[in-house]
Amino acid sequence: MPVKRKVEAVPLAANAVAAPRLSPDRLTRFYADMLLIRRFEERAGQMYGMGLIGGFCHLYIGQEAVVVGMQAALEAGDTVITSYRDHGHMLACGMDPKGVMAELTGRRGGYSHGKGGSMHMFSREKNFFGGHGIVGAPVPLGTGLALAHRYRDDGYISVTYFGDGAANQGQVYESFNMASLWKLPVVYVIENNRYGMGTSVDRASARTDLFHRGVPYGITGEQVDGMDVVAVHEAGLAAAAHTRSGQGPVILEMLTYRYRGHSMSDPAKYRTKEEVDRMRTEHDPISHLRQRLLDEYRVADSELKAIEKAARDRVVEAAQFAQECPEPDPSELWTDVYAEA
Amino acid sequence: MASEVLMPALSPTMTEGKIARWIKSEGDPVRAGDVLAEIETDKATMEVEAVDEGVLAKIVIPEGTDHVAVNTPIALIAENGEDVAAELAAKAKAPPPAPPPRLAPRVPAAAAEPPPVPALDATEYAGPTTTMTVREALRDAMAEEMRRDPDVFLLGEEVAEYQGAYKVSQGLLQEFGAKRVIDTPITEQGFAGVGIGAAFAGLKPIVEFMTFNFAMQAMDQLINSAAKTRYMSGGQMAAPIVFRGPNGVAARVAAQHSQCYASWYAHVPGLKVVAPYTGADHKGLLKSAIRDPNPVIFLEHELVYGESFPVPDDPEYLVPIGRARIARAGVDVTIVAFSRMVKLALEAAEALAKLGIAAEIVDLRTLRPFDVETVVASVKKTNRIVAVEEGWPFAGIGAEIAAIVMEHCFDWLDAPLVRVTGKDVPLPYAANLERLAVPQVADIVAAAREVTYR
After folding, report:
1. pLDDT value of residue B342
2. Per-residue DSSP letters for B243-256?
3. Please, which residues have CB within 8 angstroms of residue A255's CB and are 6 or more apart in sequence?
4. Is the pLDDT of residue B124 over 90?
């Protein structure tokens, strides 16, 4: 992974840069959170293969460090929005794996009562604003969440995730312009997993350094090793402090990688198996962190094994719930189109 | 010989205006391009520039004069060295010149004469009213709701400093400040999404599109983000938001700025779609729309903004979304219309009355949810129906009304439904072609005669 690079349109707030060294407990927590996402997504992939999950299903495997490191840098009350590769974000926001998995299977216990599916889930309680299926569309929406924070002067920020593919959509730049013009509290997290569907970044983008994309709007951007949860977390803390202090938006480009296909039906013709294998063996965020916990932080192997078992158990429980839960009542067809005025 | 400076038209629909201020005084030298005066309409302010060089010899219409018709001479410019006094003296003896011809209204019946003021439905409101323009009624609706609820704010192009591209938001910036009356860049998809995001967070934005033609840039946000989220989230999240602005055919602005989007939005579950005609309905429905927890598309009409109606003073006067109004009762034929077409339908009803045909005019006011009951009840009374709209015929509102009538009262029909619509072409610029493309009163009269076989 390339080293961290930064383009400072506005210097980030100085007090935010020195991140404290993370405690073993905190890092162990990151490990547990990433592992839950990994196991959840593996199970979702299996259930898709069994025909229990239909339609589009975009797995987050490989990218776990991005959302776990980032979410740990936020305060309760900050709002989160992303596009369709969203299962990891929901789990990192604290949503119940049972409700997420039951939505994937289209059951009444799902977060959207089975009416949203993989790409359209929300949690008011956890401040997760979706889950959106249209590439680029969450970016103005997340900017609007930031406008609401500013309007209410509540001290919270919006974290708006999108991918390298979305980074070429016009509405992203309309949003950058307004967010910088109005100094809105928003961190734009570009999850650059190198491929927009089957098109590599260098085949889609005239310039591939996506953290530069805010420069014309006066937005500071930083490129971060998105396979290193600690690097993500430190960058997230600095960015959140900067935008929370009223100095306008920040862009974080997370260099990451998805191991699986774009969706479940992916020909895998656009990249080599060797490339995928190299990323998995040399840069995997989870096994890398596990090694650090053992070597640097002296966490007992037995403790990590207990975490692994707990993650597996939660996913098994979620999968069981998602299969046993009944389908929505036919009357649900007609509900939630309108609210009573 | 001195040349006359004529009262200019600021827009294709302007018929008169006010001389706000003279910049030059009598006797001042004038060069081509110099600003002579400022003129105002209820919609805009503009400077009058000199075309000829010379001396401002005479100000004919003094500062502060209102209702000056377009093409009235407002000043005289003399050539250098010319004896204007002598010429004026000579003119004074000559018979007065014929009054300048008024500009013909470029869309017939647009603004030629003030329409008869329709009475309010007394069953709905019997309190005091104030006569005001539709644009003022819309402004008052927004101001009242912004006073009532601090979560309501206005967002759009030119809504704040400029006071609204069509002067609908006059005074709102002054009363509510820049936090709640927000000028956006020209970035429809972006600011529509920003408004929806703020609505997801529980605020109640009013998003103004300068016209609905530009909302096509934001269509994905309106449909995929605003309309569908309540359903997709199992009722957890939604956008309580109003998108408003002028829709339909303006005057001589041609194809890209003249289109009725009623059927586009009315197609979409999750949206409510409103298209009123009277001032009271504009105010009462906009207030209902702002209070509604669902996304509402509020279709206004540029050629209706300047019309005056009595409007209820009561700040709790609300017109419910989803209910049509009988604008004129009749027994021989039902004419269904919305927005500006109601005005044409009422004029057609007058003409039909002279032929002994009593037309009932149904003003839909809301297109989604559609008031099936009122339309069907009227058809069961008259047994004949004409559907009028400014939009294109194919898959339009008239087509939907035809289906509704088939489903609900086929056996009551004594003639097939006839549609009066905009012609199935992009709107042309030329005045004569534009007139042919847009529904006219005569078209409605002809359609009513067709279904009544008279």
Report:
1. 98
2. EEEE-B--SS--GG
3. A1, A2, A192, A223, A224, A225, A226, A227
4. no
Rounded to whole angstroms, the Cα distance separating A268 from A271 reads 6
Say whether both B58 and B146 belong to one domain.
no
Write the single-letter amino acid at B219.
M
Distance CA B153, CA B146 (A): 7
Which sign does the torsion angle of CA B7, B8, B10, B12 carry? Answer: positive
Is the bond leading into B393 cis (omega within 30 degrees of zero)?
no
Q: Quick one: which of B420, B427, B138 has its CA closest to B279?
A: B138
The one catalytic residue in B136, B145, B188, B208 is B188
Chain A residues within 8 A of B192 when measuring between CB atoms: 140
CB A46 within 8 A of CB A318: no
- Decide if B292 touches A, using CB distance below 8 A: yes
Q: Which residue has the higher pLDDT, A191 or B51?
A: A191
* Per-residue model confidence as pLDDT tens digits over A182-208: 999 999 999 999 999 999 999 999 999
Q: Give the residues across from B153 on adjacent strands.
A: B205
Q: Is B250 exposed, middle or buried (0-12, 13-18, 19+ CB in 10 A)?
A: buried
CB contact under 8 A, B234 and A111: yes
CA B158 to CA A82: how far, in whole Å?
Answer: 31
Domain count, chain B: 3
Token couple for B5:
């400076």
Which of B300, B380, B413, B108 shows the shortest CA–CA distance to B360?
B380
- Say if CB A62 and CB A258 are below 8 A apart: yes
Nearest to A239 by CA among A76, A74, A29: A74
Q: What angle do CA B136, B138, B140 make, to 5 degrees?
A: 70
Helix (H) or strand (E) holding A89: helix A87-92
| Token pair recorded at residue B294 | 């669902």
The dihedral formed by the CA atoms of B63, B64, B65 and B66, expressed in degrees to the nearest 10: 140
A 55-74: CB under 8 A from B = none
Give the percent of chain B with pLDDT over 90.
73
Q: Which residues pair with B197 in a beta bridge?
A: none
Same domain, B394 and B277: no
- Please give, rounded to a whole number of angstroms, the shortest distance from the CA of A42 to a CA of chain B: 25
CA angle A301, A303, A309 (to 5 degrees): 105
Q: If you average pLDDT over every residue of chain A, what do you get?
A: 94
Q: How far is CA A112 from CA A188, B234, B381, in A?
A: 26, 4, 45
Could you tell me if B401 and B445 lie in one domain? yes
Instruction: State the ipTM, two decimals.
Output: 0.94
Instruction: Report d(CA A161, CA A135) in Å as an integer.
Output: 11
Which tens digits make up the pLDDT trace of A14-24?
A: 444 455 689 99
Q: Where are the alpha helices (DSSP H) in chain A?
A: 24-49, 64-71, 87-92, 97-104, 138-152, 170-181, 201-204, 229-244, 273-283, 285-295, 301-324
B267 touches chain A (CB under 8 A): no
Which CATH architecture fits A5-323? 3-Layer(aba) Sandwich (3.40)
Tokens 């009444």, residue located: A108
Q: Which helix (H) or strand (E) holds A203?
A: helix A201-204
Mutation for testing the B interface, residue in A171, A175, A186 having most B CBs under 10 Å: A171
Instruction: Identify which of A262, A95, A248 has the alpha carbon closest to the alpha carbon of residue A163.
Output: A262
B134-148 and B279-291 helices, crossing angle to 10°: 30
Contact (Cβ atoms closer than 8 angstroms) between residue A113 and residue A52: no
Pair (B286, B405) in one structural domain? no
B124 found inside a domain: no
The whole domain housing B400 covers 325-452
Tell me which range, B81-90, B100-109, B117-126, B302-311, is most confidently predicted by mean pLDDT.
B302-311
